[in-house]
Amino acid sequence: MEPDRTLPYLGAVASLVFTVVAAAPYVLVTGQTELLGAYYAAGPFGLTGGIFLAILGVVIFLSGVRGQADPTLVAGIMLAVGLAIFGLTAAWTLLVPSEVIYSFPTQYDWLEFHPWAALVASGLIGGAAAGYAFVVN
Questions:
Q1: pLDDT for 38-93, tens place per residue?
Q2: Keywords on this record (predicted)?
Q3: What is the C-alpha separation between 69 and 7, in angstroms, rounded?
Q4: Which residues contact 116 (CB under 8 A, 6 or more apart)?
Q5: pLDDT at 42
Q6: Are residues 55 and 19 in contact, defined by beta-carbon separation less than 8 angstroms?
Q7: CB 137 within 8 A of CB 72
Q8: 122/19 Cα distance (integer angstroms)
Q9: Residue-range domain boundaries for the chain
Q10: Could you give the residue ranges of the DSSP H alpha helices within the chain?
Q11: pTM for the model
Q12: Which of 100, 87, 104 is nearest to 45 (CA)?
């Protein structure tokens, strides 16, 4: 197995997983527009910036492995982007008010665990980026 070729693909998949996990309430929660707005805007930065960076992360990770950019440059960029995604998600996870989470109807009780799942998924991006940076240098 070649880690310098595998890790960018794992990073791209981790970015997709984070995007799906973080955006799941947009798709699964219906009729709670104001609560969803408050949920995603919680904390100093909210979560939508992290989702946007993760979508860009897919393209950035794959550009290095497909020869469209220097792998060392891609690894450095994704290390910074991965840490930013993790930091944004950590701030959001820790600062989302419990009143907002528990304001949703009981059918959406799974939202209690959603911030933590998003944090774990964001950590996968940072881990893949750190591993890629380690192997290309």
A1: 999 998 899 999 999 999 999 999 998 887 889 999 999 999 999 999 999 999 99
A2: Membrane, Transmembrane, Transmembrane helix
A3: 15
A4: 93
A5: 92
A6: yes
A7: yes
A8: 9
A9: 5-136
A10: 3-28, 33-40, 48-65, 71-95, 98-101, 114-136
A11: 0.93
A12: 87
* Residue whose pair of structure tokens reads 């600062």 in the numeric block: 95
Which of 113-124 are b and which e, b meaning 16 or more Cβ less than 10 Å from the residue's Cβ? Answer: ebbebbbebbbb
Tokens matching residue 97: 């008010």
What is the CA 35 to chain-centroid distance, rounded? 21
Phi, psi angles (nearest 5°) of residue 71? -55, -35
Taken in order 55, 61, 62, 63, the sign of the CA dihedral is positive
Name which of 4, 12, 6 is nearest 59 in CA terms. Answer: 12
Q: Which two tokens stand for residue 37?
A: 């707005």
101-110: long-range contacts (C-beta < 8 A, 24 or more apart)?
101/39, 103/35, 104/29, 104/32, 104/35, 105/32, 108/25, 108/28, 108/29, 108/32
What is the rounded distance in angstroms from the CA atom of residue 53 to the CA atom of residue 35? 23
